[in-house]
């Protein structure tokens, strides 16, 4: 490859010859166009070749005019020389000036072209002036390079699509930082900070890269010159900054021209933007022209379409669109060049210049760099970009496109992405971070003489889960324990994470697998797969203490005071029945029913029979003898009613009390805990359960958090195991709020613990990994596959109900102390019994008085004497028989003895008759065992 200075001399000689011949060569009118390139052959030579051979191709097809290039060379910083060269081109009659590519010198060229109304066509990035664009200042300038604001928006859209919450910008010039205006503006005040770092001329970038690495940043935007990109990435690889979780976006549109062969197998994601489709026919045809043209000139030039610089392609398109404008305007009127002078007092302007520029602004063309559309200011506001990604097999590969209308649009399918990720997993070894906690990860129990190392040291649900995923995706893994044993919480004071989350942020692990809950706060720091287990918060509490077996537990359905009242009532009713029966004449019966003229009656209701009647009634068995008088029957009836109620209540509660335990406190939900202060409750410090109560807006949970936070001593624990132990030792004075999966594991092995209430929320456990991990989709797919095949259910059953003592506890329903009946429950029965007995006593007195009156009439004595005699007889409990016709003289003590002797002498001979009478009486009563007694009408 040779320099372009010699080519410029040849072209200048051609122009001199053309002008000497009157501007006509081979019957075509010659239209000179000027170009200014910088004296940096490595950067400008390819652009000059593109410029020359684009003109050559135009001339091959044009019949009426021929473009003649006039090239000048200047230094990028030499403004004075640049001004002189532009004036030289104007004096030679150029109809347009292309270039230069430097912002410093391009402004001078544009100013002169505006004054002379010569079209000025540029192909480099040009910032918007601080004062804003002015139509007159931009009247003669056409820029084929993407407009600054639109290009910045493309980069911003890409960052948003990649979900970069934070990133670091590395730039090398103020011009480069200006190109990222929109990127800086998308950052809100509540977003993670953006770091901006500038590099100088020092070729050692390692200190800067190490600082970025120590900050934990993994997203980097490179806004530096193309010649610095490869060296910076090479040094990034040396300091372990080209790993799989680092991502780079290169803003230069010439990134595809760099040879990344030595970095193709790095594990980081390197993304760049490209203005052209390197596989299109147009660019292949243009490259062919360049190579063939240089070969004719005996110069060697080789470039592949994939490595064509953006500026070269833009020069090609610039010549093409300018030639189109000349052609179409020349069809209406002949365009002729004019020699113009910069220093002339009578300044002349080229009359065709403004019309050509206006035509180019409204003309739509399609070139190597895609559609070419300009706005009113001559800026290229609409264009297409290819989003390319460095791959192992093909170098840069197109993965998406961008345009101002549709934004980012991916060209590869999800299947292709998934296949590429799975392929990259082959033979990869993941570092899997976890923590000890049953049943997710536990140390394996060693056998005698056994030495365990590596993954063989552990067992548990997490290990088998990641092992199943590794078999599906084909990767290897190594389990490591997080040093502090924590899940991961954010400290708002230090603004740092701890636990598993910190391990991932520090790139010390690729995955984190345990009972790690997916929360919003953690999701801002790391990524999660789909949940492999769903759960919620519940309450761990101690079961009621099992009472020792008691031979007298059958007494439990009734309290002690009820039993005392019942015994008192039993004795009272028996005595009352005995007294009333002796006072009631109906209960004095003829002992010999077959002898109608018997002059004695007997009363069978001694104290023993009265006690037996009431006992048989309360036992539900009745009695074969029954009272006759209304009062005694009423007493017996009320007692049977009382006995029926008490017996029903007793039998209804006896079975429950023989099988159920007593509770000294009733807690059935979180609301019950929140309403009381006797029983303390707590959570694991720094866990997701603690965060749930801290951030909850529900009043009950807010009260619970306030209670936990203010409790002394502290109710918080370091682990679930510590919380479990506190519940066991707390003697039902401490409850522990924890995730239902861990709670279920505990209650399967600790039979004195139980779950109280339902779930307070719903969430899931997920596998955590660094943000934007390329393996998230693949691992989530493997989790879903295991779920659909039932393997996740099998794993949970194995580690919850089978391994290490699982399944040994049978759940017993919680008892309730409300089953014990007190006097408040059955006191009404006693009131009814007392009222009935009072009524019976009154009726008995009335019956007694009525009998006294009858005796007084029959015996012709005074009522008072009859009352004394009957009362005296009734109170003599030793007498069991009574003469039918009693007299006052017979009521003496001797008379009583005589009557008793006669009665006893007759009793032996008539015993059979009495028993027969009792049997007939008993047989005449129906359902005596069920209702207690039946009124006898005899």
Can you offer a commentary on this structure?
Strands 1, 2, 3, 4, 5, 6, 12, 13 and 14 form a 9-stranded mixed sheet that branches. An 8-stranded mixed sheet has the order 8-7-9-10-11-15-16-17. It has a 4-stranded mixed sheet with strand order 29-30-27-31. Helices cover 44% and strands 16% of the residues. The protein folds into 5 domains: 29-145 and 307-380, Response regulator (Rossmann fold), CATH 3.40.50.2300; 147-298 and 384-414, Rossmann fold, CATH 3.40.50; 415-534 and 764-802, D-Maltodextrin-Binding Protein, domain 2; 560-590 and 602-659, Helix Hairpins (Orthogonal Bundle), CATH 1.10.287.70; 670-761, 3-Layer(aba) Sandwich (D-Maltodextrin-Binding Protein, domain 2), CATH 3.40.190. The protein has 31 helices and 34 strands. It is of the alpha/beta class and 938 residues long.
Counting DSSP E segments of at least 2 residues, the number of strands comes to 34
The total tally of domains equals 5
- Tell me which CATH architecture of the largest domain applies here: 3-Layer(aba) Sandwich
Helix content: 40-55%
Q: Which CATH C-level class of the largest domain is it?
A: Alpha Beta
Largest sheet: 9 strands, mixed
Ranges where pLDDT stays below 50 over 5 or more residues in a row are: 1-22, 661-665, 812-818, 886-938
Structural class call reads: alpha/beta
Task: Tell me the name of the CATH homologous superfamily of the largest domain.
Answer: Response regulator
- CATH-defined topology of the largest domain: Rossmann fold
Number of helical stretches of at least 4 residues: 31
Which band does the percent of strand residues land in?
15-25%
Give the radius of gyration.
Answer: 55 Å
Span of the ends, CA to CA: 145 Å
Please, what is the average pLDDT? 82
* Global outline: rod-shaped
GO molecular function, one term: glutamate-gated receptor activity
Protein name: Glutamate receptor 1
Site (Interaction with the cone snail toxin Con-ikot-ikot): 785
Family: Belongs to the glutamate-gated ion channel (TC 1.A.10.1) family.
